[in-house]
Design a protein that fits this description.
The chain has 448 residues and is α+β, with helices and mostly antiparallel strands. It starts with a strand and ends with a helix. The protein has 15 helices and 20 strands.
């Protein structure tokens, strides 16, 4: 097992990884920018190394600085966390080349699934159903028109090399296609330095369903059930729950089995998430995330499996000690992402936290690096906390979530807590009747 792990990330996910390491008796190294010198994970880590100024490109994306920090501290392995370099195949390869273990998949699998076009092709070969669309990247407007006619409008134009809604546009008819194609290419180029896009059939009212997997690269693969991540604003997830209120037992078993078989064929190692759109009883593969997900705690809540611990064990060469029959799904869990944003305009709200009180009690977990006096920097993602609530039933979970949100105090900055309080009181959400477009409509109705 590793003796020392460098955590190449920041915020709540860095603290989450630190905690798993400490419980395993592993020392930690926190790397940080000058803006994060007072961050909680930096305070708690056994060692810390400043790797640059606030801009991500000069610190958390500075590969040379991270590798140097691992060298001077004598780290055995590097955990990339979520975002930044977590799905960078070149970084994973460089980590191995410099004699460290990358806590994640093989670089080849990161590269394969990091490109949406090759990922879709691989998914088809692995037996996963896909959304009807183009065979590879779209190279001309004429090709786009021909493809759109063959699959039918509306069509979704998507960046081949990215996610998070950037480089993603909808064309409802032939007249909109050229302009949306141009805009999608420009956004993809600006965000991912790659202007390749592809076309898919636009599904009107799907849900976003993803399946969590664990694999050891030795043929042992399990799934930890599905998560429903349909509550999104501008393709950014806001609330997730597990299991999905939309699936029945047969659908749940079917998609879980499909994913396990595909991941086993792939020879994958580490944690991963296979994502689908689900509409009218059908699943359509959209992508595979070859890393830990922000919403991983709800899978942990319903299974009792520590995903970060298993990631570390598998990376150390330990065979997966769990089999599918060992996984018992218990109750229901919901995660609310708390962002440092105005709850109505979504304007970022960095600043100093004047008062902080996290909710507690049975079935309540908060993943956050906040504390009173901490200054939320303006340079990074606005996610500052995750509230995870577990109950024996979905109704119990909702009641517990309502109570926990009432207890949650973050003063000095604006947060999305009031939005979550509104959202969980809506009858559609209470009844589990929503799709990926529902939240946008909810915001229009309630906030004008």
């Amino acid at each position: 097992m590793f003796e020392k792990i460098l955590i190449a990330n920041r915020g709540e996910i860095a603290l989450r990884i630190h905690r798993a390491c400490r419980e395993m008796g592993i020392e930690t190294v926190a790397v940080h920018s000058t803006a994060d010198e007072d961050a909680m994970h930096v305070r708690l880590a056994d060692e810390s190394v400043c790797i640059g100024p606030p801009p991500s490109r000069d610190s958390y994306l500075n590969v040379a600085a991270i590798l140097s920090a691992a060298t001077i501290t004598g780290a055995d392995a590097i955990h990339p966390g979520v975002g930044f370099l977590a799905e960078n195949a070149d970084f994973a390869a460089m980590v191995a080349e410099h004699g460290f273990v990358f806590i994640g998949p093989e670089p080849a699998h990161i590269a394969l699934m990091g490109d949406k076009v090759t990922a879709k092709e691989a998914a088809q070969e692995l037996g996963l159903p896909v959304v009807p669309g183009s065979d590879g990247a779209i190279n001309s407007e004429a090709q786009a028109r021909e493809t759109a006619l063959s699959i039918g409008y509306p069509v979704l134009i998507k960046a081949a090399a990215g996610g998070g809604g950037r480089g993603m546009k909808i064309a409802h008819n032939a007249e909109q296609l050229p302009g949306q194609l141009k805009t999608a290419r420009a956004e993809a180029k600006a965000s991912f330095a790659n202007d390749q896009v592809y076309l898919e059939k636009f599904l009107a009212t799907p849900r976003h369903i993803e399946v969590q997997v664990l694999a050891d690269g030795k043929g042992n693969v399990i799934h930890l059930g599905e998560r429903d991540c349909s509550l999104q604003r501008r393709f950014q997830k806001l609330v997730e729950e597990a299991p999905s209120p939309a699936l029945n037992a047969d659908e749940r078993d079917t998609v879980g089995r499909l994913v396990v078989e595909a991941v086993e064929k792939l020879g994958y190692r580490s944690a991963g998430t296979v994502e689908f759109l689900y509409e009218n009883g059908e699943f359509y593969f959209i992508e595979m995330n070859t890393r830990l997900q922000v919403e991983h705690p709800i899978s942990e809540a319903i299974t009792g499996v520590d995903l970060v611990r298993e990631q570390i064990r598998v990376a150390a060469g330990v065979s997966l000690g769990l089999r599918q029959q060992d996984i018992a799904f218990t109750g229901h869990a919901i995660e609310c992402r708390i962002n440092a944003e105005d709850p109505f305009t979504f304007t970022p709200s960095p600043g100093t936290v004047s008062d902080y009180h996290a909710p507690g009690g049975l079935g309540v977990r908060v993943d956050s690096g906040l504390y009173a006096g901490y200054t939320v920097p303006p340079h990074y993602d606005s996610l500052i906390a995750k509230l995870i609530v577990h109950g024996q039933t979905r109704n119990e979970c909702l009641m517990r979530l309502r109570r926990a949100l009432e207890e949650f105090v973050i003063d000095g900055i604006a947060t999305t807590i009031p939005l979550h309080q509104q959202l969980i009181g809506d009858n559609d959400f209470i009844n589990g009747e929503y799709d990926i477009n529902w939240l946008e409509g909810f915001l229009s109705r309630t906030q004008g």
